[in-house]
Amino acid sequence: MKTFLYALVTLIAMECGTSQNMGSPAAEPGTNKKTTETFMDAERIGEMMNYLASDDMKGRDAGTEGIELAATYIENYLKSYRVKPYFKTYRDTLSNFNKPAFNIVGIVEGNDPELKKEFIVIGAHYDHIGIVPMENGDAIANGANDNASGTSMVLEFTRYFGTHKTNKRSLIFALFSAEEKGLLGSKHLAKELKEQGLNLYTMLNFEMTGIPMKDKDYLMYLTGYEMSNLADISNGYAKEKLVGFLPTAKEYSLFKRSDNYAFHLEMGVPSHTFSTFDFTNFDHYHKVGDEADKMDFAHMANLVNKTIPVLEGIANASTQEIKNN
Is pLDDT above 50 for 1? Predict the structure, then answer.
């Protein structure tokens, strides 16, 4: 009951705009005159992260009661900000996992009569690894960086496009389950969309974005950097070097280790993951120390604000600019 009430209060507070930069879900499409630089603030994303990475979630292991709390939170969030279910409901049951598990999938239809027939998937996995061997009296792997951080970013993108409806192409927002079991959620959805004959333009994934990198001249790196021109397109819309190349990401084949990869294999479109985990800035991967209080909320808010113009530019370009190399 405590968890449910906390989630309800958090959502109500967000809807009411208790933070000066939170915006309003009641805003009419196209009427927001504020720049995206102030769309998100550290306080707001901190509230989201503290809930999604709380002990009550028990580490959000796929198929458990803990992740059910997160799924309900995400559903309510999408509903609050006018993001419609992509399927009959927000929940899409995985066909490749032996316990009940759900992707949460919403859509903001494009506002252009032709371009809305093209789709962009914006995703992140919301599961983690659950309960692990006890360490210093703690056995809950909360998964703040991995991947409440990416989940929170994607939820804020849903809030922006759900309330402002500025996208010409249609945007599918996918929060994946069972990524930690072998990318099962994204494999399931990619197969479904291919079977539907969906005209997918690109898949943009967000993973482990809670801690800034040091001594870099860019804010995020792109997995599979050299496989398309997405970095150049992104930096053009950001009007700065938002995205760069991390050699370690190529060395460890990170392109194949997150949910973008299923869409690359299944549909052959440009599919990449944006991340800030560089193997030097975070020591708690898959450990109990992956807690919300270790995250940099100002950094995360900055990423959201700087990425929105990139997503908007990609969604509204007259042609499909992103090309596989």
Answer: no
Residues 162 and 168: their CA atoms lie apart, in Å, by 13
- Is pTM beyond 0.85 here? yes
Residue 259 lies in a domain: yes
**So what's the pLDDT on residue 228?**
98
| Confidence bin at 37 (pLDDT 50/70/90) | confident
SS3 category, 45: helix
CATH of the domain at 111: 3.40.630.10
Query: Among candidates 174, 136, 137, 147, which has minimal Cα distance to 59?
Result: 147
Q: For the segment 203-238, what is each residue's pLDDT rounded down to a tens digit?
A: 999 999 999 999 999 999 999 999 999 999 999 999
In the beta sheet, which residues pair with residue 123?
174, 205
Report the Cα 198 to chain-centroid distance in Å.
Answer: 21
List of residues 6+ apart from 161 with CB closer than 8 A? 83, 108, 167, 171, 311, 315
Q: Which domain holds residue 153?
A: 2-24+32-316
Contact 223, 252 (CB under 8 A): no
Spatial separation of the C-alpha atoms in residues 2 and 200, rounded to whole Å:
41
Q: How far apart are CA 5 and CA 8, in angstroms?
A: 5
- How many domains does one find in the chain? 1
Q: What is the CB neighbour count within 10 angstroms for residue 133?
A: 7
The strand pairing partners of 92, in sequence order, are 103
Confidence band, pLDDT 50/70/90 cuts, at residue 36: confident
Distance CA 209, CA 219 (A): 10
Q: Is residue 220 within 8 Å of residue 242, measured between CB atoms?
A: yes
Q: Is residue 106 part of a domain?
A: yes
pLDDT for the residue 31: 35
* H or E element, residue 154: helix 149-164
Answer whether residue 324 is part of any domain: no
Residue 26 pLDDT class (50, 70, 90 cuts): very low
The answer to whether residue 248 sits within a structural domain is yes
Q: Are 139 and 288 in contact (CB under 8 A)?
A: yes
